């Protein structure tokens, strides 16, 4: 009985093994594609990945970063909004910088007032005072001279009439009055001459330094309001009111990286495509003036003719399409830029991936 049970178990195991081998060896029926793959429109064409951008004369989309750090207080635009050059896009908290500007403006104003005061010298009222002091000193000297003359005549008539000490006191009084008159006259001349030229120059330099400090702070204050550098379209706003931003941009909690605070593009009547040509296919590119290309919008099969704009003459690692800054790749590509009019009835956006075919040489 035991031997029979062993044979039965072995037979069942063999059948299960054969059944499993049959089931796992079957090839599953492939799923139909979501859309028909794009066909090469040229007999000999180069395929490239492309990314749609706003139409730019130079470079790529306009990435706007703040030059000063702080918390966002207002966002004045929405994505998709057209803006003019100089329009305010958002504001950053500027309370501290605003107070500093007011302080330095007040300091510059005080320095200017002091400079104007020096240039306005002599003041009539001050000149009248020192002139009166000269007249007073002159009268005092005259009185001292009269007293000395009287004492001297009395002494000359009779040396016993007055003592030598009284005569010496009168003489000293006359000398003191003469010196006081000289001091008053010099003070009058000094007051009438006005401020010293070196004091004026020092005041001018102080005012210039404070004014430049105020202008510098005011220029920095203006940077707390981000403005559109050109006419265009707001493509993306990567932060919100209350978020802290810095010169690195806005922190993205999902990617744990930094993005530009605002991305702008030019008006989108026309767009451009940046196609990345594999470095091993670069030699097959025709001369720039004869390049022909078509773009295929994924999911539609729509073919859009492209107009050649320029070649960015720098082969770089292909990391732009994945946006992975830490990615290590060996593939290097040559960016070729094309321009096209937005096709009617088809929606395309900057940042969208497309297939590009370039007619080979």
Task: Report on the architecture of this protein.
With 361 residues, this protein is an alpha+beta fold. Among the domains are: 103 residues, Elongation Factor Tu (Ef-tu), domain 3 (Beta Barrel); 74 residues, OB fold (Dihydrolipoamide Acetyltransferase, E2P) (Beta Barrel), CATH 2.40.50; 73 residues, Helix Hairpins (Orthogonal Bundle), CATH 1.10.287. 39% of the residues lie in helices and 25% in strands. It has five helices and 17 strands. The protein has a six-stranded antiparallel beta barrel with strand order 1-12-16-14-13-17. It has a four-stranded antiparallel beta sheet with strand order 2-11-7-4, with no helix packed on it. Strands 6-5-3-8 form a four-stranded antiparallel beta sheet, with no helix packed on it. Helix 3 runs antiparallel to helix 4.
């Amino acid at each position: 009985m035991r031997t029979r049970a062993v044979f039965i178990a072995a037979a069942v195991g063999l059948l299960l093994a054969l059944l499993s081998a049959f089931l796992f060896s079957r090839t599953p029926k492939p799923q139909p594609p979501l859309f028909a793959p794009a066909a090469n429109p040229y007999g000999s064409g180069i395929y490239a990945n492309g990314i749609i951008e706003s139409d730019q004369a130079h470079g790529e989309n306009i990435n706007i970063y703040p030059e000063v750090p702080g918390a966002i207080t207002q966002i004045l635009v929405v994505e998709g909004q057209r803006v003019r050059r100089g329009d305010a896009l958002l504001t950053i908290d500027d309370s501290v910088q605003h107070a500093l500007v007011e302080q330095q403006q007040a300091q510059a104003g005080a320095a200017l007032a002091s400079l104007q005061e020096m240039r306005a010298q002599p003041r009539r009222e001050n000149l009248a005072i020192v002139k009166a002091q000269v007249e007073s000193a002159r009268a005092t000297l005259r009185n001292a001279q009269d007293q000395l003359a009287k004492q001297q005549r009395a002494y000359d008539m009779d040396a016993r009439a007055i003592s030598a000490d009284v005569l010496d006191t009168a003489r000293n009084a006359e000398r003191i009055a003469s010196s006081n008159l000289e001091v008053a006259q010099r003070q009058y001349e000094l007051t009438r001459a006005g401020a010293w030229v070196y004091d004026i120059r020092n005041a001018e330099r102080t005012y210039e330094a404070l004014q430049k400090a105020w202008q510098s702070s005011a220029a920095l204050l203006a940077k707390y309001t981000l403005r559109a550098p050109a006419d265009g379209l707001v493509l993306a706003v990567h932060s919100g009111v209350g978020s802290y931003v810095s010169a690195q941009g806005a922190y993205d909690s999902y990617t744990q990286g930094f993005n530009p605070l605002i991305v702008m593009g030019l008006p989108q009547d026309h767009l451009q495509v940046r196609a990345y040509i594999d470095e091993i296919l670069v030699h097959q590119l025709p001369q720039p003036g004869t390049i022909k290309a078509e773009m295929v919008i994924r999911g539609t099969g729509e073919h859009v003719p492209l107009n050649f704009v320029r070649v960015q003459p720098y082969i770089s690692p292909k990391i732009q399409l994945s946006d992975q800054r830490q990615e290590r790749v060996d593939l290097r590509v040559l960016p070729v830029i094309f321009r096209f009019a937005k096709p009617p009835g088809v929606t395309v956006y900057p940042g969208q991936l497309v297939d590009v075919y370039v007619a080979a040489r």
